[in-house]
Amino acid sequence: MKAFADLYTALDETTKTNAKVEALANYFRAVPPEDAVWAIHFLIGRRIKRLIETRKLVAWAIEEAGIPEWIFGECYSAVGDLAEAIALLLPAPIATTDKSLRYWVEERLLPLRQWSDEQQRESIGFAWLEMDERQRFVWNKLITGEFRVGVSQSLVVRALAEVSGLSTEVISHRMMGDWIPAPTFYNQLIAKDTEDTDVSRPYPFFLAYPLEGDPAGLGDPSEWIAEWKWDGIRSQVIRRKWETFVWSRGEDLVTERFPELEALGALLPEGTAIDGEIMPWQGGGPLPFAQMQRRIGRKVLGPKILAEVPVVLLAYDLLEWQGEDVREWPLERRRAQLDALVTSLASTGRMVLSASVPFGSWEDLAELRHQSRERRVEGFMLKRVGSPYRVGRKRGDWWKWKIQPYSVDCVLIYAQPGHGRRASLMTDYTFAVWDDGELVPFAKAYSGLTNEEIAKVDAWVRRNTVEKFGPVRRVKPELVFELAFEGIQNSPRHRSGIAVRFPRIARWREDKKPEDADTIGTIRNLLTI
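^ thats the sequence. predicted structure below, dont judge the formating
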């Protein structure tokens, strides 16, 4: 645990990419496989579900610290992070040990779920006494299921590639799927030559870069293929060893959630992997994404919801054919084979090709782009002719040319502390719009401001707080911000009657007064655009 806590500190204290990779590589070289594999598990964002209720953890920490509850509350409010507040308030350790990460996870952390309150209390207390402040902080994060650190999966991949001498593409592929954090997996992960025994393993997704300027900068239009950019659930459907696997981009195995695609998989040739989008689809076209959300929210998929919100795989690309990895084939060859496969299964209605959109010039394509919202798409995907299917987000071959987001001017009415490095700053905001002379909560957002702007808003919030509700502060309705968002829909669950997708702050409108903010009527009009 000491080595892992030291790694966490090293990663948290630098913003330099190369320094993070170096720290990761040094850690993987120094620790045994059983520690390395658990570190990978946590670093790439895989979590253990919360093992202990927060109220219990807080009560035990108060007992160990020997302080009144109100003092703990004040300290927590000042720090803004539960794991850190507990780590700071606990008494000094009796004697620290340097037991392995695997020991702490497999022998002290995972068994907590089966133990009684008394056993949990005793085990947690002993653990705190054996750890210094940094170890306690990481330990508390693991217990609560809120471990996160400023490192992306791509940096972990780079470090492992450096340690193993393998390419990042190979490491990325081997890390995909539903693997168990065991030493055998780690050894296979970094081995020069190994046989992959996981028939379900998906491929790393190729992600497009956003195109911010004029597409004319990409050169001759004849060198590009355009497709509509669909709004669904990015996925891979895989058929191997007479089994079907449906993976989401978040690496969740969702086969059982989409029986239509499981049935489609049974018709695919052995050794096939297709990249595509799971789309709610009816009458030859897409349904609003809100319909997909109705289906996602159901624990049990009955005949009624399956009939009301059927789905298809909107096929983008062919990654594996007859058991061969074909990602290096030129794009047009992969598309031709995929087209033939989709055509052969057209009668099933389970798979639709994401067809190319013919255009003669960038101006023609720009004109077609105006049809995006009525087609229920987000703009265009631009793919270079002859390009391979790459790993991750790589510049040059795939671009997403999205339509401009919706935007409205809203008034800040609530603020609360953020997480991690922003735990001491007011960075999570609730915004409102006008409805018959009253400000009605409309959306929450926490991204889009610069660090300098965050500091200014934080100071303003503290000076202009009207009321407190735990960590939440109601503020004077004076600041106006422009919010951008991708989608909008009616929602009876929200007080405003409206829900939006991916809201973020576009800019701080210091030039506007609260009365200049938009009304709920203006926003409802966007539903018809």
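The chain has a mean pLDDT of 89.
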